[in-house]
Amino acid sequence: MSRRTRFLALYGLILVLLWVGIPVARAGALVITNPFRSPSARPTGLPVHEVHFPAADGVRIAGWLVGSSPTAPVVILVPGFKAGSTSMVPYARLLYKGGYDALLYDSRGIGGSGGSFTLGVREVDDVMGAVRYLDGRPHLNHRRYGLLGVSLGAGVAIVAAARSARIVAVVADSAYTDQHRIVDRLNSLVFGGVTVPLAPIAPWVVDHLTSVSLYNFSPLHAVSRLGSRPLLLIHSLHDDNPTTPLSGVLELRAAAGPHTSLWIAPQGGHAAALAAQPAEYTRRVLAFLHRWLR
């Protein structure tokens, strides 16, 4: 074998390894979380109680209950992509000031919670566990709960609400239709406007790593099952996250029930409407909850 032939064979082998290896590596980076994580910090400036509860599938979830009024409705806060309770503290503050208790927690595979991150699929079980935990509190007067989810958590909130009649009102901030966009993008690289296809194996790798099927998880399919239950969709006009285009929330709005409203926030990027316009965000969220959860 000539030197040129050996070089071409080695070059071809490297290309094949990259063609296969890049989507595998990207899939791993998407779903694997830090195995040496530590519990999220205790929220400051709020009356909080540390809580632990099992998710619907038994995974141990760690979180905080904000407020302690037995007469206040409770809103469960659902964090976003690989996020814990710390990311939801600003939302807990606005709810507490508005007269609501809030339950915030570390998603599975994050912070002080057990289990592994599953890109939304099993995170629905975290919400179901939170509902059961609240149902088990003997002095709680309200047995109907609200959800407020952000980004990944917005899709989780929609799917969870479709599975539990205890959830009577949902705020979904920066929601998405399904996970196809985020996973399918792993199968190609873009260089200067040119798309280079890679081995189409990323969806299989993600399913293998998470032991779930992402293609069975769809907020767009779930939203119609909310029926007449109220849903507030919030989306930033300038959301540049490729997995949450404005067209996606318009699809959700079209498929949702009669008590669905959509606020397209004129300022802020992905999941940043609260930070960009806190007064208007707070007004709209509290007005929605006062109407449907009180």
Written account of the structure:
The protein has ten helices and ten strands. It is of the alpha/beta class and 294 residues long. It has two domains: 1-32 and 180-211, no CATH class; 40-179 and 217-292, Alpha/Beta hydrolase fold, catalytic domain (Rossmann fold). The strands form two sheets. Strands 1-2-4-3-5-6-9-10 form an eight-stranded mixed β-sheet, with helices on both faces. Strand 3, helix 2 and strand 4 (101-105) form a beta-alpha-beta unit. It is globular and about 85 Å long.
CATH C-level label of the largest domain: Alpha Beta
The chain-level mean pLDDT equals 93
- The low-confidence parts are none
Encode the helix/strand succession as letters: HEEEHEHEHEHEEHHEHEHH
Major sheet: order of its strands? 1-2-4-3-5-6-9-10
Specify the structural class.
alpha/beta
DSSP strand count: 10
What would you say the CATH architecture of the largest domain is? 3-Layer(aba) Sandwich
Provide the gyration radius in Å. 21 Å
Largest sheet: 8 strands, mixed
Shape: globular
- DSSP strand content: 15-25%
Number of domains: 2
Number of helices: 10
CATH topology of the largest domain: Rossmann fold
Estimate the helix proportion, in percent.
Answer: 25-40%
